[in-house]
Automatic annotation (TrEMBL):
Keywords annotated in UniProt: Membrane, Transmembrane, Transmembrane helix
Protein name (database record): Membrane protein
Source organism phylogeny: Bacteria, Bacillati, Actinomycetota, Actinomycetes, Streptosporangiales
Pfam families per UniProt: DUF6198
Membrane-crossing segments per the record: 16-34, 54-74, 81-102, 108-130, 166-189
InterPro entries named among the record's database cross-references: YczE/YyaS-like
Domain of life: Bacteria
Length: 206
């Protein structure tokens, strides 16, 4: 990464704050979507299905799956960063803590509030996390690795998302309207938050 781009990202402490704030917020987003019981992202459906079928908490499976996905980086020649390792270690812990603090509501209106808040939180967290510039998450790195093998971004993303969604559904994860809402909204919201979550330094005056 060039000196200019590093300067734009800010100091290392600044970037670490963004990284861990993003991971914490992402964990909250995951928890809210799962607790809504209306369906979550494909990866969360997969983690939930593993939890239902094999035991252990959803957060534990987020950690274990993240670590296993990183093993697939080896043949894809992907290199992890501080953000990658932090994602594997902390995201599941944040998700489990948020689910413990915010138990599932019963009224449908509250469940919708959980779902929509979770999708928005996930998008904002993604913008924070990417803005830190400290390495992709293990699941994102899998996608970019497949792109390096010749797949388009769309094909790689679709292949991965459909595979984990189908596996999660077969394992008993909740696929529902929330899954559709996430698919339709998260890209737009992430794009919306990216420039607003950018903490670039102003250009020096000559």
């Amino acid at each position: 990464m060039s000196e200019l781009s590093l300067t734009a990202l800010g100091s290392l402490p600044n970037r670490l704050v963004r990284l861990y704030a993003g991971l914490a917020l992402y964990g909250v987003g995951v928890a809210l979507q799962i607790e809504s019981r209306l369906g979550g992202s494909p990866w969360d459906v997969f983690h939930q299905g593993l939890s239902i079928h094999l035991g252990l908490s959803v957060g534990t499976w987020i950690i274990l799956v993240g670590a296993l996905v990183m093993l697939l980086w080896i043949p894809l020649r992907q290199r992890p960063g501080v953000g990658t390792i932090s994602n594997v270690v902390f995201l599941g812990l944040f998700a489990d803590a948020a689910m413990w603090l915010a138990p599932a509501p019963d009224p449908l209106a509250a469940r919708w509030a959980f779902l929509l808040s979770g999708v928005v939180a996930t998008a904002a967290a993604t913008a924070l996390y990417i803005g830190a510039g400290l390495g992709p998450g293990p699941r994102d790195g899998l996608m970019t690795g497949l792109v390096r093998l010749g797949l388009s971004v769309r094909a790689a993303r679709t292949l991965i998302e459909l595979t984990v969604l189908a596996a999660g559904w077969l394992l008993g994860g909740t696929v529902g309207v929330g899954t559709v809402v996430f698919a339709l909204a998260v890209g737009f919201l992430t794009q919306f938050f990216m420039p607003r979550m950018s903490f670039t330094r102003p250009a020096a005056r000559s």
